[in-house]
Specification:
Largest sheet of chain A: 2 strands, antiparallel
CATH class of the largest domain in chain B: Alpha Beta
Helix content of chain A: over 70%
Largest sheet of chain B: 6 strands, mixed
Shape of chain B: globular
Helix content of chain B: 40-55%
Radius of gyration of chain B: 22 Å
Distance between the termini of chain B: 69 Å
Strand content of chain A: under 5%
CATH class of chain A: Mainly Alpha
CATH architecture of the largest domain in chain B: 3-Layer(aba) Sandwich
Strand order of the largest sheet of chain A: 1-2
Order of helices and strands of chain A: HHHHEEHHHHHHH
Radius of gyration of chain A: 19 Å
Number of strands of chain A: 2
Oligomer: heterodimer
CATH architecture of chain A: Orthogonal Bundle
CATH topology of chain A: ABC transporter involved in vitamin B12 uptake, BtuC
Strand order of the largest sheet of chain B: 1-3-2-4-5-6
Number of domains of chain A: 1
CATH topology of the largest domain in chain B: Rossmann fold
Distance between the termini of chain A: 32 Å
Shape of chain A: globular
Order of helices and strands of chain B: HEEHEHEHEHEHEHEHEHEHEHHHEEEEE
CATH superfamily of the largest domain in chain B: Response regulator
Number of domains of chain B: 2
């Protein structure tokens, strides 16, 4: 039981890291960004490509990859999100879905359908806790989730731009009337969310395998966590991420792993029946 | 629209055009027909493979093998009737596979090579049967394929042969306890139940963990197996992602038990993608790059010669998928030539009543059309498959 609990905490850290960016975008710009998982995947493949092409250390490759995604996110947000964001919700869905499909197909052309992995020195540094083997890379994912949530919270609460972001998140119409450029805030929010997705991609991916279709699973997990936490509830997303990770791991002790997801997501449906705006919406 | 937006829009149009052109060029090469030979009457052969969707990797490798055999036939490097291929993408979707079969049979095609997955091939069979056509069974393993096909034969090993091979290996290892990690569904349960049924009473099955099809996060499942502490862990995960994930996770968690892939699951692609984590893992397959015979040597040479011109082959190792698909077309072409007929029933009868020298060795068939195969034992080393020591 201790081993599965340890696994649950580590998996929860990965879920949290995956969900923070999406939750932030949902909270500020009310954008359900279907391209979120694609950026996660692009960052992972970017790291693998830089590693194999230039033989640089893992952290350097990860930084280059995240920077690349950050550069990419700015024009893509200008192109695919901002022009449609104020019209209707489904326009953004379709527009970001198109970005996701294009990104996946371009990646398929470039990398093929093969799976691969990212070689990180932190995966070979391992500790044993009960029957669980914990790698430094997994701990890094967990630490990253907590650090990003903390930095984001401080940024929103302690900086002038953060205050403007919160104003737009609270009431965009009123914020615009006060002279805040809502479009600019949306642009920054979506880009920050995308960069967090990229950080998730480069930090979590070395613990498993990567494929061009990996973004779909991440998007589902991130959206589930963000929705259950409540729109824009960053620490709520962290808490729900950990809760789902622990619940999934412990559930494998009593039911077959094949049915764990159905069991956990069933519980989530029940939770949303009682808390339709998310568990932390009243925070 | 300001200059900045115009610039972005122009870039986007450029990118979309590029993507569109790339997609179109790929579509032409995979769905069109390619010339079989300049001499002799060319026989139309249908090829329906999952070139896109979740089974795309395997499907593209199958097309690669078939295209290489076609090139070799056209160049006279393989004995057999020249053929003209009609390639369709079944998109890993049974309904699309059925549509493709309807289209090709509507064009008068009765001879079909390939098939990536059981579900997409089973969807084609009633349509192929309706024209008394023939299927080579692709790289599927289900016994249902041959029982449902009117004129079918298959080179791949079936689930019974696979199970016997792994059960024999476990006995040879002298293990006392075994645990299974398999995917949900027919394939996974076939691996665990098939092998379990053949194990002697001295080998105890301590656990069977089932995971979703395509799952790559196996941390908790492997931790559970580690708690059971078996002498061997036999896994039955299809595709490439699952096998790579389990090999890496077993290594990552320093699991004591021997890593035993189900027969045919440690492919060249898996070994390549798993990297050093696969070193020392032993696999069994009906074909191996390490098999020494003239046909296998010719295959390796033709793969090197013709592979680069086919997009489906690019970045792929010479794998079981490629080899078995190559063998299917080579065998079909040879049987057409030997029988002097393109009648599916006559061609099938010729196939099953003779023995054939193919890259996997000398192959004979039973009455059901199932190849009687000898499995090769090999191991992974530096991302490649080498003969087991």
């Amino acid at each position: 039981m201790i081993a599965q609990l340890v696994n649950g905490v580590l998996i929860g850290g990965q879920y949290s890291l995956a969900a923070i960016g999406l939750s932030f975008m949902l909270g500020v710009a009310r954008v359900v960004n279907f391209a979120y998982g694609a950026f996660y995947m692009v960052a992972a493949f970017g790291t693998a490509t830089v590693l194999s092409a230039f033989h640089v250390p893992y952290l350097v490759a990860a930084l280059i990859s995240v920077a690349g995604v950050a550069l990419l996110s700015w024009p893509l947000t200008q192109l695919a999100v901002l022009p449609v964001i104020r019209r209707a919700d489904d326009n953004v869905l379709i527009s970001t879905l198109a970005v996701s499909i294009i990104a996946t197909n371009v990646a398929l052309q470039l990398f093929g359908g093969q799976v691969t992995y990212i070689e990180s020195p932190f995966t070979s540094v391992k500790f044993t806790v009960d029957q669980a083997t914990v790698s430094l890379q997994q701990i890094l994912s967990l630490v990253c989730a907590l650090v990003i949530a903390t930095v984001l919270t401080l940024y929103l609460r302690r900086t002038a731009f953060g205050t403007r972001i919160r104003a737009v998140a609270g009431n965009p119409v009123l914020a615009e009337a006060s002279g805040i450029s809502v479009k600019r805030i949306f642009l920054v929010a979506v880009c920050i969310g995308t960069v967090i997705a990229a950080i998730g991609g480069v930090i979590v991916s070395p613990t498993g395998v990567i494929s061009v279709f990996m973004g779909d699973n991440i998007l589902l997990t991130a959206f589930t966590v963000a929705a259950l936490a409540g729109m824009g509830k960053i620490w709520g997303a962290v808490a729900v991420g950990f809760a789902i990770g622990i619940l999934e791991s412990l559930a494998t002790m009593i039911i077959a792993p094949a049915y764990v997801s159905a069991f956990v997501y069933g519980l989530l449906v029940v939770a949303l029946l009682f808390f339709p705006k998310g568990l932390f919406s009243g925070e | 629209m300001n200059a900045f937006h115009k610039g972005i829009a122009a870039c986007a149009i450029g990118v979309l055009t590029l993507v569109g052109l790339t997609a179109c060029s790929r579509g032409d090469s995979s769905s069109g027909s390619s010339s079989g030979s300049a001499q002799g009457a060319s026989v139309d052969v249908g090829v329906i493979e999952d070139q896109t969707g979740t089974a795309a990797t395997a499907g593209q490798e199958n097309v690669c093998g078939i295209e290489i055999a076609n090139d070799a036939l056209a160049a006279g490097e393989l004995a057999g009737s020249p053929v003209t291929l009609h390639v369709e993408d079944s998109q890993t979707t049974p309904a699309v596979a059925a549509q493709a079969a309807t289209k090709l049979t509507g064009q008068g095609i009765k001879l079909f090579v390939g098939g990536t997955g059981t579900n997409t091939l089973l969807a084609q069979i009633p349509i192929i049967n309706s024209v008394d056509g023939l299927t080579t069974g692709g790289v599927t393993k289900s016994t249902q394929i041959l029982s449902e096909a009117k004129n079918g034969f298959r080179l791949n090993g079936d689930t019974g042969q696979d199970s016997q091979t792994i059960a024999d290996y476990l006995k040879q290892l002298g293990v006392k306890t075994v645990a299974f990690l398999v995917e949900e569904g027919t394939f996974g349960s076939g691996v665990s139940s098939g092998i379990s049924a053949l194990l002697p009473s001295s080998i105890q099955v301590v656990d069977t963990v089932t995971v979703p099809i395509g799952e790559t996060d196996l941390t908790s499942a492997v931790t559970q197996l580690k708690t059971d502490d078996p002498d061997a862990i036999v896994w039955g995960l299809s595709g490439t992602a699952g096998p790579v994930a389990i090999i890496r996770e077993l290594k990552q968690q320093d699991v004591r038990g021997q890593d035993v892939p189900g027969a045919g699951l440690l492919s060249g692609s898996v070994a390549q993608a798993a990297g050093s984590a696969a070193d020392g893992v032993v696999g069994f397959e009906v074909w191996s790059p390490t098999t020494q015979n003239d046909a296998n040597t010719a295959l390796a040479q033709q793969f090197a010669k013709y592979g680069p011109k086919h997009p489906e082959c690019q970045g792929k190792p010479l794998d079981k998928q490629v080899a078995l698909s190559y063998s299917q077309l080579a065998l079909l072409a040879a049987a057409i030539e030997k029988s002097g007929s393109t009648d599916p029933a006559i061609v099938r009868q010729t196939v099953v009543s003779n023995s054939w020298d193919l890259p996997q060795g000398t192959v004979t068939f039973d009455d059901s059309g199932q190849a009687q195969v000898k499995y090769t034992q090999y191991t992974a080393e530096d991302g490649k498959l080498v003969p087991a020591k």
